[in-house]
Amino acid sequence: MLKKIMILNTFIFTICFSRVLVDSTGRVIEIPENIERVISTVPSNTEIIVDMGLVDLLIGVDSYSEKVDERLKGKGFLRSDDLNEEKIVELMPDLVISSHHNLKKGKESLKFFDEVGIPVYVIKSPKSLSEVADSVTEIGEVLNRKDEAQKLKDRFIEELKMIVSNRNLENKRVYFEILDSPIYTTGAETFLNDALESIGGRNIFKSEKGWISPPLESILEKNPEIILVGEDRKYMIEEILKRVEWQEVDAIKNRNVYFVDESINRPSTRVLKALRALKEVLKR
Q1: Distance between CA atoms of residues 115 and 191, nearest Å
Q2: What is the pLDDT of residues 60-80, one digit of tens each?
Q3: Quick one: CA dihedral 6, 12, 14, 20, positive or negative?
Q4: What b/e string do you get for 34-62 counting C-beta neighbours within 10 Å, with b at 16 or more?
Q5: How far is residue 124's CA from residue 5's CA, in Å, rounded to a whole number?
Q6: In this structure, are residues 63 and 79 in contact, taking their beta carbons and an 8 Å threshold?
Q7: Which residues lie closer than 8 Å to 29 by C-beta, 6 or more apart?
Q8: Which of 50, 55, 41, 20 is nearest to 88 (CA)?
């Protein structure tokens, strides 16, 4: 049955390709002119598509993307680190919009889809707020919905300018705890670091690059004034405040430990919500 579907899919796509694009992996992708059935494999791309007003195009998403819009409930079937080949073939999409997060085998992860004729376009993962705007343009190009993309991009840039124009000038020392065991946080050249700095926070690990696991001693020495947690870790606030070794840290002494909306971790247009909240935190 799967083989028959694959053959049918290959035939359908062969007769209707009309555009050729190059994705972030350097692959040449043939994409239909008219796209009506889309699978999105990461929440950030899903949020951009939904915010463009194109939620009806989405026939399947990753499990995390179901929370993006109530109309996506029941459509989540993908894990964040993998592409479910059989399910994607079953849904027969016109296009899969993917991310490097899904490619645990690198380009080898895409070989199957190239062979059966299902176009998988891999979007570059933004490392800054300006690159989020670029992603909107890119997704609009891929979906052949340039007008919708331009409107969303304009709104995003305008709102972002308003948020950062009156940012905190004290540059308070900030530690963002992603995980505690092992310790995991962000250095420079990441989307999260750029988001923090855009509203006047000073990441205590900005001298290091990428996602890092620093020793506890270095956190205590850098003495953050504000500690942040995100995703589903709101419950950690009280635990952090009670850590014996941390009691001389300014953020603990002043009870400046806060939960940040999960949008802070996702390079999409919805990061604006988290930035507004963070501005208020930094004013305290």
Answers
A1: 34
A2: 999 999 999 999 999 999 876
A3: negative
A4: ebeebbbbbbbbbbbbbbbebbebbebbb
A5: 30
A6: yes
A7: 20, 21, 22, 23, 119, 120, 121
A8: 41
Q: What is the mean pLDDT of residues 90-118?
A: 90
User: What pLDDT digit, counting tens, does each position of 150-165 carry?
Assistant: 999 999 999 999 999 8
Which single residue is written with the structure tokens 């670091």?
193
- Express each pLDDT in 202-227 by its tens digit: 999 999 999 999 999 999 999 999 99
Residue 186 in contact with residue 212, Cβ under 8 Å?
yes
Torsion of CA 117, 123, 124, 127, to 10 degrees: -160
Strands (E), 103-207: 120-123, 173-177, 179-180, 183-186, 202-203
Sign of CA pseudo-dihedral 56, 58, 63, 67: negative
**CA dist 252 to 35, 55, 80, 249, 257, Å?**
52, 43, 34, 5, 7
**pLDDT > 70? residue 7:** no
User: Which DSSP symbol is given to 99?
Assistant: E
Placement of tokens 């080898």 in the chain = 108
Tell me what pLDDT residue 264 has: 86
Q: Which residues pair with 188 in a beta bridge?
A: 209
In angstroms, rounded to a whole number, what is the distance separating the alpha carbons of residues 214 and 208?
A: 10
Cα–Cα distance measured from residue 80 to residue 213, given in angstroms and rounded to the nearest whole number:
22
